[in-house]
């Protein structure tokens, strides 16, 4: 048993205007949300229907802010080409989660690299208005859940619909088969593929206030990457 796995975090804020140069308080609000969500200490988990309440998992992963780096840059829109990572390379990616906060554009909230990819691009990118829950944030993605979702990918989670139709797997047994992403704030029960979708899972595409859980199966999948020889064993000594 690994116990609580702590993840040191370096935040790199790259801004083209003063609003995008988000405050330390906004950065800290996101760290606090990651800690709440990955430890199942989020108050809104009480909204879970009884069908799923027993599956809510404390992932036993925590996050500590090491450093916030700030850079002014004339680039207004970074896209998803990882240009921001080549201009501001990650700090110690084998044992540090790097999060770049910059304007991605194109309606994209954030994106992540799965475990096992190149070290030079490892980490998560999030647009400032979807980072944390105070300051320069934009409803309905103002609850800090974009980082929860993207860090889920960074820790090897797939979307709960497996990025395909009913039989396409997310490699997690306790997340029911789903036919595609759910959006907005779905009513319960939302039934697809002859089972109730776990629309309130962080790895669906719903509004921040309508996602509030990882499952036990997702916890197991995330934690397996920290085992010796696993793709993120650098976080465990
Ligand atoms: N990569 C997804 C996107 O940009 C992130 C979705 C996060 N969802 C959320 N409710 N914050 O669309
Ligand atoms: Zn995603
Ligand atoms: Ca599943």
Architecture overview:
The mean pLDDT is 98. With 237 residues, the chain is α/β, with parallel strands linked by helices. Strands 2-1-3-5-4 form a 5-stranded mixed beta sheet, with helices on one face. Helices cover 18% and strands 16% of the residues. The structure holds arginine, zinc ion and calcium ion. One of its GO terms (molecular function) is metallopeptidase activity. Belongs to the peptidase M43B family. Keywords: Disulfide bond, Hydrolase, Metal-binding, Metalloprotease, Protease, Signal, Zinc. This is Zinc metalloprotease.
Based on the model shown, name its key terms:
237 residues, alpha/beta, two-stranded antiparallel sheet, 5 helices, 18% helix, binds arginine, binds calcium ion
Walk me through the topology.
Layout (H helix, E strand, L loop, with lengths): L4 E11 L8 H15 L11 H4 L7 E12 L10 H5 L9 E5 L8 E3 L11 E3 L18 H10 L36 E2 L2 E2 L19 H9 L13
Parallel strand pairs: 1-2, 1-3, 3-5
Antiparallel strand pairs: 4-5, 6-7
- Encode the helix/strand succession as letters: EHHEHEEEHEEH
Q: How does the major sheet shape up?
A: 5 strands, mixed
Question: Please, what is the average pLDDT?
Answer: 98
Cα radius of gyration in angstroms: 17 Å
Helix-strand makeup class: alpha/beta
Low-confidence stretches are none
Biggest β-sheet: strands ordered side by side in the sheet: 2-1-3-5-4
Family: Belongs to the peptidase M43B family.
GO molecular function, one term: metallopeptidase activity
Protein name: Zinc metalloprotease
Domain Peptidase M43 pregnancy-associated plasma-A: 111-225
């Amino acid at each position: 048993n690994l116990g609580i796995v702590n993840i040191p975090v370096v935040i790199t804020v790259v801004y083209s205007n003063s609003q995008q140069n988000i405050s330390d308080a906004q950065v800290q609000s996101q760290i606090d949300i990651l800690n709440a969500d990955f430890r199942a200490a989020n108050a809104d988990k009480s909204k879970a229907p009884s069908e799923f309440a027993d599956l809510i998992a404390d992932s036993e992963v925590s996050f500590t802010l090491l450093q916030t780096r700030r850079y002014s840059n004339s680039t207004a829109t970074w896209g998803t080409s990882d240009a921001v990572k080549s201009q501001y390379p990650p700090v110690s990616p084998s044992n540090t989660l790097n999060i770049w906060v910059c304007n991605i554009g194109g309606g994209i909230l954030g994106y992540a690299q799965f475990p096992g990819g190149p070290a030079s691009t490892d980490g998560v990118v999030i647009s400032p208005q979807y980072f944390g829950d105070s300051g320069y944030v934009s409803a309905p993605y103002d609850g800090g859940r974009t980082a929860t979702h993207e860090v889920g990918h960074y820790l090897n989670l797939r979307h709960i619909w497996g990025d395909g139709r009913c039989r396409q797997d997310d490699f997690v047994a306790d997340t029911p088969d789903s036919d595609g992403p759910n959006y907005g704030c779905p009513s319960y029960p939302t039934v697809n593929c002859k089972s109730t979708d776990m629309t309130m899972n962080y790895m669906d595409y719903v509004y921040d206030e309508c996602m509030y859980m990882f499952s036990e199966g997702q916890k197991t999948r995330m934690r397996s990457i920290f085992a010796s020889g696993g793709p993120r064993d650098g976080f465990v000594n």
